[in-house]
Design a protein that fits this description.
- By secondary structure, the chain is mainly α.
- The protein has one domain.
- 87% of the residues lie in helices and 0% in strands.
- Helix 2 runs antiparallel to helix 3 (39-57), helix 2 runs antiparallel to helix 6 and helix 3 runs antiparallel to helix 4.
- It starts with a helix and ends with a helix.
Length: 119
């Protein structure tokens, strides 16, 4: 994966498209966590989401989008916690289902942000 090419393309899109990409990754992560398959793909989606957040927050105008930045940084912390214990977490079905539930909640929150951005 060439992260620099992805970063360039990602940053050329609108904020709504960026949030949509992040939301889609979380939906995919949720689906994989519920099924318990493709842990490598799920791990990659987590890492890609972390990059999306890093790239987005670095260009946010904190005077106008502080709430979005704060929310994204909270999501970044959640993804980092998961990443630290990924093998154990993935192999424990109740914990993996919890990942799915939390990913769904984050996805819903981001969809709310998309509604704010679109209005």
């Amino acid at each position: 994966m060439n992260w620099e090419i992805l970063k360039t393309r990602y940053l050329q899109t609108s904020r709504a498209s960026q949030m949509d990409s992040l939301s889609l990754n979380l939906t995919r992560l949720q689906t994989l966590a519920m099924s318990g398959v493709e842990d490598v793909v799920a791990h990659h989606l987590m890492r890609e989401s972390q990059f999306f957040i890093e790239w987005t927050v670095s260009v946010i105008d904190l005077e106008t989008d502080m709430a979005l930045a704060t929310e994204l940084l909270s999501l970044q912390r959640q993804l980092s916690r998961w990443k630290l214990s990924w093998p154990e977490l993935w192999n424990n079905e109740p914990e993996r289902r919890q990942v799915a539930a939390v990913a769904q909640t984050w996805c819903e929150q981001l969809q709310g942000q998309l509604n704010v951005i679109a209005s």
